[in-house]
Amino acid sequence: MGDVLAFAEQRDGVVRGVTHEVVSAGAGLAQSLGGECHALAVGGDGLAEAVSGLGGAGAARVKVAAHGSLAGYAAEAYARIVADTARDGGYAAVLFPATAVGKDLAPRVAALLDVPLASDATEVSADGGAVVVKRPVYAGKAFARLRMEASPAVVSLRPNVFPVEERGAAGAVETVAVDVDPSSWGARVVEFRSAAAGSLDVSEASVVVAGGRGMKDPEHWTLLEALRDALGADVAALGASRAVVDAGWRPHGEQVGQTGKTVSPKLYVAVGISGAIQHLAGMRTSGTIVAVNKDPDAPIFGVADYGIVGDLFEVVPRLTDEVRALKSGA
């Protein structure tokens, strides 16, 4: 049997949306391997109720490792719990979301299991009992297809790439006994600084409106905020280039690129972004890319599906008005 273990990421006792993507992808992979997908949630007390709905995404079983000291992300403890569960369960694969937590946790687990890690995968499948992964390389200019010979195959999945399929698995919740000694931890997370209340994480949004140095001043971000709101603040998030973040115009949590967050939304709107290779590495796998830039030779147009050459201070307000009109049916 080729069972798959999917790490169920949560924050403050709330399951993150990307978890459903990982579980659904895990269920599809497990089916190909002739096994089941099991989800593993690690966190504070009361976690069992929060993860009880993961059966809908395909989790046949939901394992819960809960302890008061695990309410906040503790890398050493989380990694040991996931690795022990993977080893004891004889899983063929362990899947993580390629989020900030997943990117920190997955390599730790791979090291404890003494196996390689395939990170930021955009496809995962089975071939002859082995796990096969497709992932971008060379800053997204090409894709590599990897055959994972080691067991278990440890893979992190790029958010917003894998569709959530309603599978209606049992989702039976089981408690995993944990032996936690916080005094032995070498480090722990003491604080999360989140985006403004109600704002989506740029790595999980299905629409991203991103700005670069072409915005000229941080005060002009109201133009992008208006466009985001017109598209729908419940599905759209603001993003930024590294130059903008380095200048202190926008928070680091909005940075898209090789040294920021990797995003794959259905729609990516790049405003005043020239398209340096480091930025393209973080967004070129987006479904549809729209670029607004006054420089017709800007590299961003090389990856854009739709490009508008013009003054963003004229284009963006008109674009916002058109979106509002379309959504209102006017």
* SSE order, one letter for each helix or strand: EEEHEHEHEHEEEEEEEHEHEHEEH
Q: Write down the CATH class of the largest domain.
A: Alpha Beta
- Give me the count of strands: 17
Q: Strand-residue fraction?
A: 25-35%
Number of helices: 8
- CATH names the topology of the largest domain as Rossmann fold
CATH architecture classification of the largest domain: 3-Layer(aba) Sandwich
Total separate domains? 2
> Structural class, from secondary structure content?
alpha/beta
What is the radius of gyration computed over CA atoms, rounded to a whole number of angstroms?
21 Å
> Any idea what the shape is?
globular
Q: Specify the helix fraction band.
A: 25-40%
Overall pLDDT level = 91
Widest sheet: strand ordering: 7-11-6-1-4-5-12
Termini separation comes to: 56 Å
- The stretches of 5 or more residues where confidence is low (pLDDT under 50) are none
- CATH-assigned homologous superfamily of the largest domain: HUPs
Give the topology.
Layout (H helix, E strand, L loop, with lengths): L3 E5 L1 E2 L2 E2 L1 H17 L3 E7 L3 H4 L10 E6 L8 H15 L3 E5 L2 H14 L3 E5 L1 E5 L2 E8 L4 E7 L4 E5 L14 E4 L31 E5 L9 H11 L4 E5 L1 H5 L20 E5 L5 H4 L7 E6 L12 E4 L2 H17 L2
Parallel strand pairs: 1-4, 1-6, 4-5, 5-12, 6-11, 7-11, 13-14, 13-15, 15-16, 16-17
Antiparallel strand pairs: 2-3, 8-9, 9-10
